[in-house]
Automatic annotation (TrEMBL):
RCC repeats lie at residues 133-184, 185-236, 237-312, 313-366, 367-412. Keywords: Membrane, Repeat, Transmembrane, Transmembrane helix. It holds the Pfam family WD40_RLD. Residues 1-48 are annotated as: Disordered. Residues 120-422 form the RCC1-like domain. Residues 25-36 have a biased composition (Acidic residues). Residues 1-11 have a biased composition (Basic and acidic residues). Gene3D superfamilies: Regulator of chromosome condensation 1/beta-lactamase-inhibitor protein II. This is RCC1-like domain-containing protein.
Amino acid sequence: MASKRKSEPVKKTAAKRGKKKTEDSFDSDLSDDYDDAPAGNGNGNASTLMTFDERAVLPKLPAELLASRDREPGKLLIAGMVTWDLVGKKSDTKGGIKIRPNLYYFNRFTDEKYRLAVSGCSSAHSVLITMDRKALTFGRNNLSQLGQPELKTYEKPTLVPGLEGFDIIDAACGRNHTLFLTDTGLVYACGDNKSGQCGVGNTTATITKATRINYNGPPIIKVGCGAEFSVILDIKGNLHTFGLPEYGQLGHNTDGRYFITSSKMSFHFETSPKRVPLFIEKAKDGHITPVDDVQIVDFACGNNHTVAIDSKKRCFSFGFGGVGRLGHAEQKDEMVPRLIKFFDSVNRGVKRVFCGSSFTLAIPDAGQLFLFGQNKKTGEANMYPKPVQDLAGWNITDIGCGYTSTVISADDSLIAWGSSPTYGTQNFIYIIIKLLPYFYHHYILFTITTTILLHYYSPIALILFKLLPCFYYYI
């Protein structure tokens, strides 16, 4: 019998010091030293919590960037289902819900003007940004997603406590959580946090008031929410994700699954923002090549997937691949952002993307609208990007995507379509040149600016002089 080989002594060496950051874009003026990938938690335990000086005066984001986020304000109109407690539910199972009639025509919601109306394709709540950049919320608040003190439905837009001293420039709504972005690049979150989607460094079940996320990197310029995960974009073009890693929707090359017992499985939640470090290109034979020099400029989130555009107008997607929503002609989940080859050619660079719950819309440089995924409950799905021929030649300015519905602002018209049933969310507005029907359980908020948002059950829009919609969509 062979004798055991003796292990060689391990030499102790000093820990390598991280490379000094030499990027001169915004390090010196707008950010502190930071860790690109703060430690996550194993089974819901708290990650390393950062300390913040709330009294510190932070510089604002660059004036050009802030100016690009400004939209012409508009007044709010609403149509569709407005019984917020029933949004996403088949019936009133517990009873006692006050049923309100569906709005089959657009109605004035308030007399105020707003800069922005925000919701998500899986949410039953909404955020309004006022003229003086304050955040108002309304809708369902069963898990504190409105940041309001009482766990009740708020039917009137109400100022978010704790954010009165901040200028809010953007927001995002998940299924039951909300992110707020300030003009200094800080992000605050509230609502459901069982999967760490609020990014506060732990999995406390509910974040009852707007709380700064556990992040100390470069200023954030855009926020987005999936159903149970969140995505933020910093000023240097890096994506950071946190929350539920199922389907690889965080882009960290894992779905986070692990066994608690022999028969019980759980997820390794990311409770703090973690940078997405790798972008890939996959050939037909399965060969994978890293894509270099990726600087993200825009992104959009569906329920369980994300699509992002970089500075070279390349388009990447990752997360749940069902029904072709990632645009790769297959239904495999993508654990890291993968280049969509269809758009990787001359004159096909993507300038804007929009995500519904299970589909994606993209507008290349040529202006033709492409759809991939499934924007209806039954029937065929687009496994790869296909042009929407009915909109050929239209100058599309904005799009709102919901659960199965789409609203488009094009030229001086508002165009809408989607699968039934509807609740008045596909109204024919005679002031608008054209409005095509079929929305699924949504309410619409219109803005007279160039923004469209959709909710799951009713559309909301802010309307301006050109009647460009800002669509809201509820789940």
